[in-house]
Amino acid sequence: MGRYVLRRLAAIVALAFGISILVFLIIRLIPGDPAIAMLGTNAGDAALVERLHRQLGLDQPMHVQYLGWIGGVLKGDFGYSYGYQQSVSSLLALNFPATIQLTLAGLGLSLSFGLILGIAAALWRNRGADTLSMGVALSLMSMPSFWLGLLLILAFAVTLPWFDVVGGTSLKGLVLPAVTLAAGSAGFNARFVRSSVIAAQTQRHVLTARAKGITRVQLFTRHVLRNALLPIVTIVGLQVGQLLSGAVIVETVFSRPGIGRLLVPGILAKDYLTVQAVVLIIAVLYALTNFIVDLLYPALDPRIAAR
User: Fold this and answer.
1) CATH 3.40.50.300 is held by the domain 97-305
2) 8 A C-beta contact, residue 152 and residue 179
3) Helix ranges (DSSP H) in the chain
4) Over pLDDT 90: what percentage of the chain?
5) Residue 77 has pLDDT above 70, yes or no
6) What are the residue boundaries of the structural domains of the chain, listed by start?
7) Mean per-residue pLDDT of the chain
8) What residues does 87 pair with on adjacent strands?
9) Which residues partner with 86 through β-bridges?
């Protein structure tokens, strides 16, 4: 087990360095010059542009720029945002908690609603409840988040003023963005839970337990649900990255503070250091989440720990 943990941690470090190189190169392939974007109407002065390039270190070779940036990251310094005129670390400290709050709320809603729909569809397979549950799941999966968000704002913030319209950071302001973020994942979870539960119901030990005459509730909770949870946990680990990236769109639609408010303007303004830091942290969080999921496997299935 110890070797496995060390190997996974080493893989996370390698992944982080690989992502850092990719995002460093890709952001620089976007057309435009950050110095010109910053200078605005004064960008016609070549001397000003050249001086700003030197101040930002953009006149140095690419490998020198990368080594300087990654060296600072290893020390906890993500650089200075020339778009926001403050350190990237302070921007992350201000905005990332709101994104984590939204992601966790969306994950909780996605799992809760997906489990309810999926279990109902599996227990009443090929009946009306199954058809209705899977119809709802398919509808949730088909709706773009930005479109659903606008509909929810119109229905529950404008027509019915139950929740904050935009920019809300309170619990009332969290409801609509969390529902918007969770909708697509909830539909996918429902379909996946249905398949997992149906597959678990056909296992030999479940059939044996049913033949012994235990109650349906005991059969489901002790034998079916526990075996169905393992593949569901894997999907949860994968969905964290999806929810983090989806939060960028949702935060933009609802004008919430968060990484969306950093990433989108940062890309448009060619704010290299801000974009690099946000993408790198998202990638590391995604890798760490899947690492934690892998460690949960032995707790859910003792047979894995015995190997």
Assistant:
1) no
2) yes
3) 2-29, 34-39, 46-56, 62-74, 88-123, 128-142, 145-153, 171-201, 204-211, 216-219, 225-254, 259-268, 272-300, 302-305
4) 1
5) yes
6) 2-88, 97-305
7) 82
8) 80
9) 81
Look up residue 93 and give its amino acid: A
Q: Mention every residue, 6+ apart, whose C-beta is less than 8 A from residue 290.
A: 237, 238, 240
Which tokens go with 81? 């945002």
pLDDT of 46 > 70? The answer is yes
Question: 251-278 burial, b if ≥16 CB within 10 A, otherwise e?
Answer: bbbbebbbbbbbbeebbebbbbbbbbbb
Q: pLDDT tens for residues 196-229?
A: 888 887 777 777 877 777 777 777 777 777 777 7
Around 304, how many Cα atoms within 13 Å sit in the side-chain half-sphere? 12
- What is the reported pLDDT for 168? 61
Q: What is the chain's alpha carbon radius of gyration, rounded to the nearest angstrom?
A: 24
